[in-house]
């Protein structure tokens, strides 16, 4: 059996989740008639203390619909240099919404409120681009699953709000941040104008994300979702997977986090420069291969021969992600194997 550590999106719906999907009440969601979609939207909005929510097929779409309600064409969104919105959504903000982006770099993607505020230029007048929103990613994917400190989020909210800049949360893995930090979802939600969350990552649903905001913004986003071609019909069968995930899978994320830490510790023992286990906060382990003669692509290819799948996200950056479909035994096998590869190729 393969041990797939490429992403937490690779999980397959469990038999119980499939049963919930099969028995879901459905209707035409474009007409607002799907009761399972409606109840999921209400449920998730309430969890984050928001007025309304919109079910989307992907987190990218939820992000893009959110930021387009905050930033007008020709205005600017600030995001961290390694953020999903600027690196992994294929320029959607520019292509679909005429939004320009500027970035600020942060160590492991961790927010320090003063840094985006230093870059921000609100109400810039007729000559310079005006900043109208700031995006925060929590947990930070390419930052190695790091959790954003609530104190810095609050400080950024205070400073940005004072100058009329809105905030968007890319909360694809906000569930991971929540179970690990103990911060209530509503306490995260409160600090943002728009929030995106994914059910298809660690929560194990086959598809599904939501955008959360005010009734007015969600109404606007609903129109744009249809305009983009993502008005969906009897998708209560998908929303039912989301309900199932929320009912059962949030506490299980703790196991993913413990397993990621365990992998990091095993690898650290034989290849300490690749990973500092104390930086592994949630379910992502980013390996720095700078001190090894092997590239991330080569490491990934070698692992694949042994049935271990890992992500090569940069020439010298590999990513291991834990999720529901792994076992303790698989984690140990994979970590020992990767550790041995790194030990063998250590150069400096
Ligand atoms: C996965 C992810 C998304 C959304 O991805 P989709 O594949 O479009 O669902 C957004 N932000 C972050 C940080 C992610 O990891």
Descriptive notes:
The chain is globular, with a radius of gyration of 20 Å. The chain has a seven-stranded mixed β-sheet, with helices on both faces. A three-stranded antiparallel β-sheet has the order 9-12-11. Strands 1-10 form a two-stranded parallel sheet. It contains 14 helices and twelve strands. By secondary structure, it is α/β, with parallel strands linked by helices. The longest helix has 18 residues, at 253-270. The chain folds into two domains: 12-248, Aspartate Aminotransferase, domain 2 (3-Layer(aba) Sandwich), CATH 3.40.640; 252-344, Aspartate Aminotransferase, domain 1, CATH 3.90.1150. The protein starts with a strand and ends with a helix. Helix 2 (35-47) runs parallel beside helix 11, helix 3 packs across helix 10 and helix 12 packs parallel to helix 14 (328-344). The protein has helices at 15-22, 35-47, 59-70, 84-87, 92-97, 114-119, 150-162, 174-181, 185-189, 215-227, 236-248, 253-270, 296-305, 328-344, and strands at 3-4, 52-56, 76-80, 100-104, 131-137, 166-171, 194-198, 209-213, 284-288, 308-309, 311-314, 317-321. Bound molecules: pyridoxal-5'-phosphate (PLP). Keywords: Lyase, Pyridoxal phosphate.
Summarize the structure.
This protein has 348 residues and is an alpha/beta fold. It is built from 14 helices and 12 strands. Helices cover 42% and strands 16% of the residues.
Strand order of the largest sheet: 2-8-7-6-5-3-4
State the CATH architecture of the largest domain.
3-Layer(aba) Sandwich
Query: What Rg is obtained from the alpha carbons, in whole angstroms?
Result: 20 Å
Gross morphology = globular
Q: Give the biggest sheet.
A: 7 strands, mixed
Give the class-level CATH name of the largest domain.
Alpha Beta
Distance N terminus to C terminus? 34 Å
What are the distinct ligands in this entry? Answer: pyridoxal-5'-phosphate
Q: How many domain modules?
A: 2
Relative helix content:
40-55%
Report the portion of residues in β strands.
Answer: 15-25%
Annotated CATH topology of the largest domain = Aspartate Aminotransferase, domain 2
Query: What is the string of SSEs from the N terminus onward?
Result: EHHEHEHHEHEHEHHEEHHHEHEEEH
Number of helices: 14
- DSSP, total strands: 12
Structural class by sheet pairing and helices: alpha/beta
Q: Which stretches are poorly predicted, pLDDT < 50 over at least 5 residues? A: none
Mean pLDDT: 98
Family: Belongs to the threonine aldolase family.
Domain Aromatic amino acid beta-eliminating lyase/threonine aldolase: 4-286
GO molecular function: L-allo-threonine aldolase activity
Cofactor: pyridoxal 5'-phosphate
